[in-house]
Amino acid sequence: MAWLFTLSLSFYCFQSLSYTIDLYFGEMQPTRDYLAYLGAALFFPSMTAGPIPRQGKLLEQFCRPFGLTAEDGGRALLLIGMGLVKKLLIADYLANNLVGRVFDTPALYSSVETLVGVYGYAMQLFFDFSGYTDIAIGAALLLGIQLPENFRQPYLSVNLADFWRRWHITFSNWLRDYVFDVLPKRRKHPLLSYSYAFLITFTLGGLWHGISWNFLIWGVLHGLGLGVVFAWKLFRKLPSPYWWAKALGVFVTFHFVCFTWIFFRASSLENAMGVLRSLGAMTWATDNLTPLVLGVLLIAAILHCFPPRWFEISAGLAGRMPFWVQGLAMAGLILLIQTLAGRGSAPFVYGNF
Predict the structure, then answer these.
(1) Which of 21, 139, 174, 267 lies deepest, with the highest CB count within 10 Å?
(2) Is residue 106 one of the residues assigned to a domain?
């Protein structure tokens, strides 16, 4: 039964379920082309770790004639290059030189070092997952298929609801459309019914990642947090116009998300408790934080904050370059990554789910 259970928790299952559910509710028309259906259901760029496209939208693109403009080609190569840099030069370095060590033996590290390790995991997970997503979207674009956006500067979110509009967007949209929206809600008791819906939705979302106490706690914490955000918005009708209020919201949201990442990353509940004990020990040694580790972490934070329009400008420039310049740039980038990465690549984090 193990292989059946694993299949039931895959991206493939989410994608196929969207097709079945949309047909049931009359949101789309069924296709008569079985090969097109199989191509959409088993589309290799997104099958391993997302993004999770709606199968109906994929089918529409599969049925259109293939077309690839110079702009799309340049954009695709830029996305693939960005994804390789995110994954091999940032995520893998943080994983091998900081995160893995702190989470494997938290008792050996001071509170400051453990806190930096938690920050490091937040960045590792983002750059690993968004790097894979960039590669998947770029590879699909080379085949004439447009996959949906999956990340939008999530650690700049002003509250937890905003975070889930920016983090793993296709997953949160799937949960919203096929779980949250179908749960019963009462207008007379919106706070209670919506809080219940958030809790159920994210408890299931947590267990989708794996049947363990860690993922259950991670999902419950996010469900409860979203309930708090909903209650705040319900009783406070207008958002604060002050910049410091938004900055405080970003600060609190980021640290709440980092706190929940501890349970997401830890190998067991006892391991998570060990990380929390290390954080609470209030020790201040920094001997294990090398300048290179801190430098990579700082670069990761800066890259995360780059305005999205900078990518659009870069994509436009890449699309106007001659094909041989694009090829030389990609080859040079691969040689640079091979030289700097050195120790090889770790598996994509979300390839496990």
Answers:
(1) 174
(2) yes
209 catalytic per annotation? yes
Domain finish residue from 30, 45, 65: 65
In a domain, 17, yes or no: no
Residue 1: predicted pLDDT: 41
Rounded Cα–Cα distance for residues 125 and 129 (Å)? 6
- Distance between CA 340 and CA 98 in Å, rounded? 17
Distance CA 170, CA 58 (A): 14
- Residue 200 forms part of a structural domain: yes
H-only helix segments in 25-168: 34-41, 44-47, 55-62, 70-84, 92-94, 100-104, 111-142, 160-164
Q: Considering 168, 189, 209, 304, which one is annotated as catalytic?
A: 209
SS (H, E, C) 291-333: HHHHHHHHHHHHHHCCCHHHHHHHHHHHHHCCHHHHHHHHHHH
User: Cα-flanking dihedrals φ and ψ of residue 330, to 5°?
Assistant: -65, -40
H helix or E strand, kind and range, residue 206: helix 190-209
Residue at 70: amino acid letter: A
**SS3 readout for 251-280:** HHHHHHHHHHHHHHHCCCHHHHHHHHHHHH
- Specify the pLDDT at position 238: 66
The domain in which residue 112 lies consists of 70-301
Question: Does the structure show a pLDDT above 50 at 8?
Answer: no
Per-residue pLDDT tens for 133-169? 999 999 999 999 999 999 999 999 999 999 999 999 9
Residue 31 lies in a domain: yes
Q: Which of 286, 301, 316 is the last residue of a domain?
A: 301
Look up the pTM and report it. 0.92
Q: What is the pLDDT of residues 248-303, one digit of tens each?
A: 999 999 999 999 999 999 999 999 999 999 999 999 999 999 999 999 999 999 99
pLDDT tens figures, 301-321 = 999 999 989 888 888 888 888
